[in-house]
Fold Ribosomal RNA small subunit methyltransferase E.
Amino acid sequence: MQLFYHPQLDQSVTLFTFPEEESKHIVRVLRKKEGDRLMVTNGKGHLFETEIISAEPKRCKAQVVSCKKKHQKMHWFHMAVAPTKTNDRYEWFLEKATEIGVNEITPIFCEHSERKTVKKERLEKVIQAAMKQSLRTYLPQLNDPVRLDDFLKKEHKGLLFIAHCEDDEKMDLKRRVAPDKDITILIGPEGDFSHHEIQTAYDKGFLPVSLGESRLRTETAALVACTTVNMINNG
């Protein structure tokens, strides 16, 4: 099955038009024609079976044949991860986290961050492509980048964890995670969180966790955290 994305679709829609870029891909690349069936999600859990009624390269039109909704999991998983020095490594993390299963992602800028800007539009496209490739019907929420200090000023519910490299006493993440509990995990930049940032996170209720004995790159640490939470909630 191949999955397409149309964020404006809902259960009240019967006829719709794909955006120009998606229309071109459907008609010219995939060579779809009138009468062909396509599976489409709106990124909010709905899966639509649709039929092409006009295969125009710039305005491919379709009608909804049926619709069903997949229920969201019981827990809400929020990853706050510092952007990596090179864009492709952060995009790799976003792609894999979407495939494995994450609900919300916030890029955080820290004292030791080497990258202070991100192109959110580009990151959104990476997430959308990963959602379609992995046949998921929920699009992870990508928040605007924020300084860690500002992120910590906000209220965060559920289990709160920070993974860092200092020698504080830590418990393995897999022993901290509980099934069906909301969870937020902080992952720092290549230079790690500063001591001040770690103490501020502690003051806000974040507990230190270990992701294993090895020292991991930012994107690897984030992926290990995603995998651990996914395994605990699907075990």
Notes: The chain has two domains: 3-69, 77-234. Residues 45 and 137 are 5 Å apart (CA to CA). The mean pLDDT is 95.
